[in-house]
């Protein structure tokens, strides 16, 4: 196993038809912020098209992300190839970033 898991990114009725934002969520077992980030992505993904991939930080790709982004704790959220945030992910800021992307 490579530590990656695609998350269902189906677009519900009424959601934006713009191209899907690519989101990579690096997580760790037992991380409560990681669970919170999944919930944020589920809520936002019900309205905005997201292609979410979840990666375990203990995997080789996860360790590479830790080395590259040098964040102190999980989760790490990458939006369209750029570090968006880590730890407690702000739903408001994520929605704003996605809205700016759609313009």
Based on the model shown, name its key terms:
103 residues, alpha+beta, Glutaredoxin, five-stranded mixed beta sheet, 25% strand
Your description of this structure?
- The chain has 103 residues and is an alpha+beta fold.
- It has one domain (4-102): Glutaredoxin (3-Layer(aba) Sandwich), CATH 3.40.30.10.
- Helix content is 35%, strand content 25%.
- It has three helices and five strands, in the order ββαβαββα.
- It has helices at 32-45, 60-69, 91-102, and strands at 4-6, 21-27, 50-56, 76-79, 82-86.
- The chain has a five-stranded mixed β-sheet, with helices on both faces.
- β2 (21-27), α1 (32-45) and β3 (50-56) form a beta-alpha-beta unit.
- The chain starts with a strand and ends with a helix.
- Total beta strand runs: 5
Report the biggest beta sheet as strand number plus sense, adding barrel if it closes: 5 strands, mixed
Q: How many helices?
A: 3
Q: What's the CATH H-level superfamily name?
A: Glutaredoxin
Termini gap:
38 Å
| Named CATH architecture | 3-Layer(aba) Sandwich
Helix-strand pattern: EEHEHEEH
Number of domains: 1
- Secondary structure category: alpha+beta
The CATH class is identified as Alpha Beta
What Rg, in angstroms, do the CA atoms define? 13 Å
Q: Please list the strands of the largest sheet in the order they lie side by side.
A: 1-3-2-4-5
């Amino acid at each position: 196993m490579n530590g990656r898991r695609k998350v269902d990114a189906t677009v519900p009725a009424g959601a934006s038809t713009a191209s899907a934002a690519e989101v990579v969520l690096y997580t760790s077992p037992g991380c409560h912020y990681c669970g919170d980030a999944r919930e944020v992505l589920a809520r936002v993904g019900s309205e905005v098209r997201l292609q979410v991939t979840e990666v375990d930080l203990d995997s080789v790709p996860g360790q590479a992300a830790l080395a590259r982004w040098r964040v102190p704790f999980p989760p790490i959220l990458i939006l369209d190839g750029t570090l968006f945030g880590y730890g407690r992910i702000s739903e408001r800021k994520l929605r704003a970033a996605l809205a700016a992307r759609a313009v």
